[in-house]
Design a protein that fits this description.
mainly alpha; 631 residues
């Protein structure tokens, strides 16, 4: 096979590439306009005889229009929601970062597919049944029902702060790649993308987000798949690709080292990856809001199954792209040759060198990268605005806006958050430290919130004091490790050791490789692989929360609402709690199923209102009783 150094002639965007990229932005804007102006659904409320409108059962987010805007009236379909889940998780960081991770550290990370499928099972059978049974609009409502409003406020504020810091990163990374291959001003393209995203998210709501995500993920997959296919053909097929990768030491799946310091080991990817994926997909509002837009538990489980398959397929393609890039550069590392300055430039550089002469293909690739950015950004805008309304404005500050002002507040929040994303891009560009702060905050928020939800659903005796202590302990521990690790890396005390590279066929190169520092004097926790940060936070919440709850007066299990506890724990609960709450739960589940199967005759909340006088459900609802007990 040809081992000559890679082609250094650099191609730039053609008019066809710009057209492909522009088409993606235009289609996104049109999708929002369609669902915002031409497919607005007018909900007709049916009030049973003898009931007044004022006595009608409460609706999601306080009104049917807000329920339609933020949840699609809980009537979306499984497949579009599954594709939206895939698209929202895949960001430009994923498309650009995963191949470079495989290139630099080998294929051990590819094992993440196993934790993804385990995550799907865990979410479907441990966490999802609780949310679907309670019919919450915001996942953080659960924390008030189970513990108190203080716990809910702590988690929701943490979520909002995390998303605000994450917003500029979503846009900055792909904008930087676009700037690299086109020379277009980074701030200009970032501003255009933000404006398009804010437009269709604000106008179309959750339906525009879901359906736009669904076709954007197709663009993302095709863009990476086409590049990978053309690159494989050019090198002589998959066998040659893996031959070069094996020769270069990149193929590794069973690194059974027990070290917590190695970046990727079998145990780190399996355990740490499982806990991270579960923490993000089980309780995070960006995911739960899409689960709750589906009509029932069965449909939601189907959606999660499709999501698990879709996300694993996409990540597999990205991992293979990393192997392919190494096979292309295996005799001449592009960074050593001075072709790139950072790892994030690796994939765009490869695209422009290998298929840059094929008009439209670079444009398709960049459209895929920005499609990933748009999908992630739109979900964050929609979900964060929902949390600001339901958990911050109503839950924390006890403000109850009418339907009109609620709509104004939510849409204004989307616009303001979009403006914040654009503004913080200048900060990210000039202050690299914000990247480490943002990633640390994400680790803190994901671990702590998953920990406190797990405490509530899996530890029946836990109480409010235990939850608050657990949140503090989890945030301190995960924050300590994450911030400390990032500070050590920034100061050069710790450096991830990449696999060996070759400069054999490089016409010239800058260095023989990085000089790694002596890490023996660094505090051990700061040397941990990033895979272990999330488990540390979750375990801290569970341990501290359980112990504090036990010593400060554990909950009376006979008086706890079983709907607030995961079904996998129900076998360990006393029979009395099912006697106290069982008939209500059974009737509620029956009504939920009937409403989802026959919603063309009566809206779900109208059915509840109509049957509210039934002796079976005439006693206080579980959520009301639990809320009173928690206080």
């Amino acid at each position: 096979m040809n081992d000559d150094p890679p082609q250094t002639e650099y191609f730039h965007f053609h008019i066809v590439d710009y057209c492909v990229f522009a088409a993606m932005l235009i289609l996104s804007a049109v999708s929002g306009a369609y669902f915002g102006f031409f497919r607005k659904k007018t909900t007709v409320q049916i009030i049973p005889p003898g009931e007044s409108a004022s006595k009608k059962a409460g609706t999601d987010f306080g009104s049917s229009s807000m329920s339609e805007y933020l949840l699609g009236s809980r009537k979306l379909k499984a497949f579009p929601v599954a594709m939206s889940l895939v698209a929202s998780y895949i960001s430009g960081v994923t498309i650009l970062g995963t191949p470079s991770e495989i290139y630099s550290f080998g294929t051990q990370y590819w094992l993440i597919l196993v934790p993804i499928y385990l995550m799907g099972l865990t979410v479907s059978f441990v966490y999802l049944p609780v949310f679907m049974s309670l019919k919450v609009g915001s996942s953080y409502e659960y924390l008030e029902l189970r513990f108190s409003s203080a716990v809910r406020s702590m988690a929701s504020f943490m979520f909002v702060l995390d998303e605000i810091f994450f917003l500029p990163i979503i846009v900055y990374v792909p904008a930087l790649a676009f700037n690299q291959v086109t020379g277009v001003n980074l701030h200009l393209i970032a501003g255009i993308v933000c404006i398009v995203c804010v437009f269709y998210t604000t106008i179309g709501g959750i339906k525009a987000v879901v359906h736009t995500d669904a076709w954007q993920i197709v663009v993302m997959f095709i863009s990476v798949f086409v590049v990978a296919t053309l690159g494989t053909i050019a090198l002589g097929g998959p066998a040659e690709v893996f031959r070069r990768a094996t020769e270069g030491g990149r193929v590794e799946i069973f690194n059974l080292s027990p070290s917590l310091y190695e970046r990727h080991t079998f145990w780190g990817v399996l355990i740490g990856g499982y806990m991270y994926w579960t923490s993000f997909n089980s309780v995070n509002q960006t995911m739960v809001q899409r689960y709750m837009s589906l009509p029932n538990l069965k449909t939601a489980r189907i959606s999660i199954a499709v999501y698990s398959i879709g996300i694993s397929a996409f990540i597999s393609v990205c991992c293979y792209a990393g192997v392919l890039i190494y096979a292309y550069y295996y005799k001449c590392d592009p960074m050593a040759a001075g072709l790139i300055r950072t790892d994030d430039q690796l994939f765009p550089n490869y695209v422009m060198e290998t298929v840059g002469d094929l008009k439209g293909v670079p444009g398709l690739f960049i459209a895929g990268v920005f499609g990933a950015a748009l999908s992630s950004l739109s979900v964050v805008l929609n979900s964060t605005s929902a949390v600001l309304l339901e958990d911050i404005l109503k839950g924390c500050f006890k403000v109850q806006p009418n339907e009109r002002w609620a709509a104004i507040f939510v849409k204004s929040s989307c616009i303001v958050l979009g403006g914040v994303a654009m503004s913080l891009i200048f900060v990210v560009e000039r202050l690299g430290g914000i990247l480490s702060v943002a990633t640390s905050l994400t680790a803190i928020a994901a671990a702590t919130t998953c920990g406190v939800f797990s405490l509530g659903m899996l530890i029946p005796w836990s109480n409010t004091k235990g939850a608050i202590a657990g949140v503090i302990a989890g945030a301190v521990m995960s924050g300590w490790v994450s911030l400390g690790s990032n500070a050590a890396i920034a100061n050069g005390y710790v450096m991830a050791q990449k696999l060996d590279i070759s400069t054999e066929n490089c016409p010239a190169f800058n260095s023989t490789g990085p000089e790694y520092p002596d890490e023996s004097g660094v505090f051990p926790l700061y040397r941990f692989s990033f895979h272990w940060i999330n488990p540390i936070g979750i375990i801290s919440v569970l341990l501290v929360g359980s112990v504090v709850s036990y010593f400060t007066g554990p909950r009376d299990l006979k008086q706890i609402d079983p709907e607030l506890i995961s079904p996998v724990i129900h076998r360990f609960l006393p029979q009395e709690c099912f006697i106290n709450y069982g008939s209500t739960a059974m009737e509620r589940n029956r009504l939920n199923e009937e409403a989802s199967q026959d919603d063309e005759h009566l809206e779900f909340h109208d059915r509840i209102s109509y049957l509210a006088s039934s002796p079976v459900i005439s006693k206080p609802t579980p959520s009301q009783s639990t809320r009173d007990q928690s206080r």
